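re the bet — no i am not wrong, look at it urself. input seq straight from the record:
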Amino acid sequence: MPARVITDDAEALTVAAALAAEFRAGASARDTERRLPRAELDRLSAAGLLAVTVPAEHGGADVSAHTLAEIFRLLAAADGSLAQIPQSHFAYVNVIRRQGTPEQQKFFFAELLAGRRFGNAQSEAGTKHIQDIRTRLEPQPDGSYLLTGVKHYSTGALFADWIPVLARAEDDNLHVAYVPRDAEGLTVVDDWDGMGQRTTASGTVRLEGVRVPGDRVLPHHLTFQGPQLHGAVAQLLHAAIDAGIASGALEEAAEFVRTKSRPWFESVDAGYGTAAEDPLLIQRFGELAVQVRASGALLREAAHTVDAARAELTDDSAAEASIAVAAAKAHAAHTAVEVAGALFELAGTRSALNSLNLHRHWRDARTHTLHDPARWKIQHIGRYVLNGTRPPRHGLL
């Protein structure tokens, strides 16, 4: 059955809300059993949600950054693992938008509209830092390349139709090679054993002399030679995931207190018959709700700033977008961890039972917020505000 083609932002949000409600029901069991969400990802593909950023001239909805962020927030509120899987998918769609030739765009946008999925093979272990990429593209006489390297934290690769691989060519510049999941010499190993985001299958990709046609390689390094939104959009989706996890944790904490928590005996002595009437709990819920709302507001502001920069891209507008996203990400990361941890403070001893699996929210938040340090985002914000220093151009800001 062909994938649905979503036509506008409103339809995309309606589809995302419906799928999030569907996915929420099985999220705890999938996490407990580490049952990988292949069926759920197939639903995302068939519903057309993974093609919503395909440009209109290629038949897509070309939704706004605001809509895309809200899609991720809705999905993460339902399942913090599932929402992480397509993050890199959209990042590598953006590479094609930015650096693809007309022929490459025509081919890959048709693939996306047909429901195909991108994974990622980007990070490497044991290198000096995250930008120290050692995977190599070796040119061949016929214009193709041989791709060799080992990638870690390859979220989405296990479920992908195409795996974008970040690699260096003979000129040492970064390129992205789009490799079919079943390519000879490519192996995806499901060895992810993180305490949180258990079902992302963020394992290892091994590339041993994988042959890649020349027209499947894009010059990613050119993305960062001028004003760009690649990093801002990628980080916006991470911020949306954190904001969603926080929202989902607060909602589950409130439901637990309303339906399962006993009031503390001093609260009963003070005349309050249920846990939900306890004024100290009410106060704490109010404080956490303010943080969740603030994260949501910063996320929306950041998305609108990205959309404004996209309409008129300059060094200044790109800098504004990166700074707005950095603020949203730093706040949402803190909020996600705090709210998911406060769930136990609010819900009481019973909430710590392993069988209830309420700790999945904290594990997901703690794991996801390790993706890149918020402290450096605060540094860039401070330099921008105090000295007018634009943030650097890279994919993590």
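see?? The two ends are 38 Å apart (CA to CA). told u. also The chain has twelve helices and seven strands. so pay up
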